[in-house]
Amino acid sequence: MDGILLLAFLFLVAGVIAVPIASRLGLGSVLGYLIAGIAISPLLQALHVDVVAIQHFAEFGVVMMLFLVGLELQPRMLWSMRARLLGLGGLQVSLTAAAITGIAMWLGQPWNVALAVGLVLSLSSTAIVLQSLNEKGLMKSDGGQAGFSVLLFQDIAVIPMLAFIPLLALSGAPEWAEVAGVHAGDEASHASLSLVDHLDAWQAALVTAGAIAAVVVGGSFLTRPVFRFIAMAQLRELFTAAALLLVIGIALLMILVGLSPALGTFLAGVVLANSEYRHELESDIDPFKGLLLGLFFITVGAAIRFDLLLANLGSVLAMTLGLMVLKAGVLYLLARVFRITGADRWLFTLGLAQAGEFGFVLLSFTVAQAVIPAALADQLLLVVTLSMLLTPGLFILHDRLIAPRFSVSQDREPDAIDDTGSVIVAGHGRFGGIINRILLSAGFKTVVLDYQSEQLERLRAYGVKVYFGDAMRPDLLHAAGIEQARILVIAIDDRENITELVRHVTEHHPHVYIVARARDRHHVYELWAAGARDIIRETFDSSLRAGRSALEALGVHPYDAERQIRGFVINDQEQMRGVADVYDPDIPAHRNPAYVAATKRYLERYEQAMKGQSAAFGNRLDRGWVPPSAEDLAAEEAAVNKAAEADD
Amino acid sequence: MARLIVYYAHPGHKHSQANRAMAREARRVEGITFVDLYADYPRFDIDVDVEQQRLLDHDVVLFQFPVFWYSTPSLLKEWQDLVLEHGFAYGAGGDRLAGKTLMLAVTGAGPEEAYTEHGYQHHPLRAFLVPLQQTACLCEMRFTAPYVLYAALRAPSEGRVAPHVTGYRRLLEAIRDDRYDFDAAAGREVIEHDALPLREAN
Asked: Could you write out the DSSP letters of every residue in B142-171?
């Protein structure tokens, strides 16, 4: 127990110190974690910590990340990516593997070792690349999308590689019986956890297909009632537990049938991308993903064997640089062929030029299968790690030197971000529902948050995009895209929550324009003090219309009634604004002398106007149509006549 | 029987002397359509389909309004902008109003002598109504001489409102009963209450 706490404390301290510094310096969180890992590696060694075991555990962060990526990806979008997924991804893996194999053979390795090395190094780091792309908001750019296609293909390709690599050890005498035993999850040791080991190939295929179908069908039809059932308990942590259960369960199922858990959760994410629980799931899983990935990056940094590195410094550095140049070359070529242009081409080229975490897995696997000698594998492990360590540097290079040159093509980015919805509507009740309908009918994309799940399903039936969740939670606002939002409409019921939300958003997201619902006049002052400037009293406008109807029913000309109401509004708003400035939420209104004085002043003016002693109220709006008095007319005509005489 | 529609437009209805009395009288004339535009559209959200159908359902269209700054009150301008659509009132296929008649019943603040070359308005009143005349022309409508009250602001104190209102009623009834002599009117600059071009009933 103490050991675990100490370890957790160590990792957390390293992360908490290194990552903010790295972010402040513009290096990105990944490099921060890697450096933190390097920093604590002597300590970990002294404590005899099995870093590699922790790393395998932390790799689950990648699985979670792919689930989150899937959530962001509509099935339609995935389908439209198919050409790139297979074409770009397939060519990247095969060309890179072929080139590395060739070079390795030229360097004197036997063909089977060379091929294994080629396969291992052809993969890139999903963790580093996606994390960096997300952090920089480049995930939706053309280069980011292409990169993601390739990474997804690689994740899928790991499975057949695990099946193929043992054949290389037997050099030319493949025994298919042995193959079936190893195409399990990430590691050979997982093979014991397999459902399909003892089945014939066709049966295994059937079970595998069944598992995928279960994920897709279950995700489509089963999650909704289950989540609704959980939501009814009104316990937040229960929802988090359910979300974790979902991800872990699917990962486990995939391992059982010998598929990539990352692929399985990704699929589940895509299936749930249209669900109203999407943002809730996102905000529940996100912290876990972040922590696990952070842990993973730390372990990558901590696992560097500096003794080995120093002993082979020249050759390891040369191999690392050679590998990255080669991978970048292949990527650049593919980017040209697939018409990825401008800064996106460089993002794609530089971003994926490293070897990845699957390399760790495959390397230990190849050693276990006696394909690659342990000495070579140790060096390759260093190459993989170093190339990952250098990747954040390449992203910085892209950011600082390359992207600015293509700033024109980067202008398209805001468009791409649009699909998170430029408007967030918090609360979809009687108030927010109408607002949302107006925004949708005007062609704006909205993200609606509400926490009444029965209502959500009814709305879903009408095709309204609503998501389950409490808008009061900063993480949910984040998942709903508050960073990219232009407007937040606060239409929730609870008075204190509205004020709190205004305060939070004006403080943390000052770029977001807030339209806030106020319960009454005093609430308006509170919201004003909290920073909102566009404040709408929830019953004010309907009262105005009711007042207008009453005037019309009393025989007032409809246009006069309209003007009367407009005058009332202008007067009222003027008064509100005057009083709002002196309102202090910490002092009860009647004990605030400035407030009392201002209110009194307006009341006096109002009374005077009502008695017709002042032009302030009402008639100032139609003074344009009040004809001049008889005396004025006479004086005017006299002047005109005089002027006419003078002309003559 | 000519089908007559009167469009009344006055945003300061409650301050009006002449126009309000005219409108009250016009509303009482049977067998014609009377529309108070500011009452129908206090928020300016003119229903173009309804208005076009109204035009199709009538033969004579009469705008009654006070001349504000040498033009119509803003809602009546809005009405023209929206209702007289391309393809309906003018342009390709826009002949739906062809053959109908447009008449104006206007009040002017200035006295008749102001609307002369040496008066302070420098032009005859008709000069300020040319935009509407040309509108009728483009819509292939007949534009007939307007029914006018000069020096409308002083009319009440000079006892000129009542005869103008009575004349207005007779004019509307005559148009309704096909007793209004549009040919005779065509030769006139303006029509006033004491000289209505009427025919005896057949």
From this structure: EE-PPEEESSTTTTTTTT-HHHHHHHHHHH
Report chain A residues whose CB lies below 8 A from the CB of B39. 557-559
| Cross-chain Cβ contact B39/A557 below 8 Å | yes
Is residue A24 domain-shared with residue A127, that is, in the same domain?
yes
Stated pTM of the model: 0.60
Residues 6+ apart with CB under 8 A from A90: A153
Judge if A543 and A532 occupy the same domain. Answer: no
**Predicted local distance difference test score (pLDDT) of residue A618:** 47
One domain, residues A519 and A558? no
Is B14 touching A (CB cutoff 8 A)?
Answer: yes
Q: Are residues A300 and A379 in the same domain?
A: yes
What range defines the domain where residue A13 resides? Answer: 2-410
Number of structural domains (chain B) is 1
The residue among A512, A536, A560 that closes a domain is A536
* B11–A559 C-beta distance less than 8 A: yes
CB-CB contact of A85 with A152 (8 Å): yes
A562 touches B: beta carbon within 8 Å: yes
DSSP-derived secondary structure letter, B142: E
Regarding whether A307 and A456 lie in a shared domain, the answer is: no
- Asked if the structure places residue B193 within a domain, the reply is no
pLDDT reported for residue A414: 32
ipTM of the complex, rounded to two decimals: 0.87
Amino acid at A147: G
Q: Looking at the domain assignment, is residue B194 inside a domain? A: no
**CATH number of the domain encompassing residue B166:** 3.40.50.360
Boundaries of domain holding B98: 4-185
Show residues of chain B in contact with A627, CB under 8 Å: 12, 15, 17, 109, 153
Report yes or no: A593 at the B interface, CB cutoff 8 Å.
no
Quote the pLDDT of residue A47: 85
Domains held by chain A: number: 3
**In the 8-state DSSP scheme, what is residue A442?**
T
CA distance B104 to B65: 8
Q: A555-567 in b/e burial notation, b at 16+ Cβ within 10 A?
A: ebbbbbbbbbbbb
pLDDT in tens, B151-165: 998 899 999 999 999
**Which chain A residue has the Cα nearest residue B154?**
A630
A624, B12: Cβ pair inside 8 Å? yes
Q: Which chain B residue shows the shortest CA-CA distance from A643?
A: B120
Q: Which residues of chain A have pLDDT under 70?
A: 1, 170-197, 407-421, 453-455, 463, 609-624, 640-641, 643-648
Of A626, A630, A648, which is closest to B15 when you measure between CB atoms? A626
pLDDT of the residue at A176: 36
The percentage of residues in chain B with a pLDDT greater than 70, rounded to a whole number, is 99
List b or e across A404-421, with b for residues whose CB sees 16 or more CB atoms inside 10 angstroms: eebeebbeeeeebbeebb
Give the minimum alpha-carbon distance from B42 to chain A in angstroms, rounded to a whole number: 4
Question: In this complex, is the C-beta atom of A638 within 8 Å of any C-beta atom belonging to chain B?
Answer: no
Distance (Å) from the C-alpha of residue A547 to the closest C-alpha of chain B? 15
Q: In A133-196, which ranges are E strands?
A: none
Q: Coil, strand or helix: which one is A487?
A: strand
pLDDT tens figures, B75-134: 999 999 999 999 999 999 899 999 999 999 999 989 999 999 999 999 999 999 999 999
Give the one of B36, B40, B153 whose C-beta lies nearest to A633's C-beta.
B153
Q: Tell me if A557 and B11 make a contact (CB, 8 A cut-off).
A: no
Which residue in chain A is spatially nearest to B153 when comparing CA positions?
A: A627
In the predicted structure, residue B199 carries a pLDDT above the cut 80: yes
Of A565, A522, A524, A564, the closest CA to residue A543 belongs to A565
Separation between Cα atoms, residue A497 and residue A518, nearest integer Å: 11
Question: Which of A410, A430, A462 is the last residue before a domain boundary?
Answer: A410
Alpha carbon B71 to its chain's center: 12
Interchain contact B13–A (C-beta under 8 A): yes
Q: Is A630 on the interface with B (CB under 8 A)?
A: yes
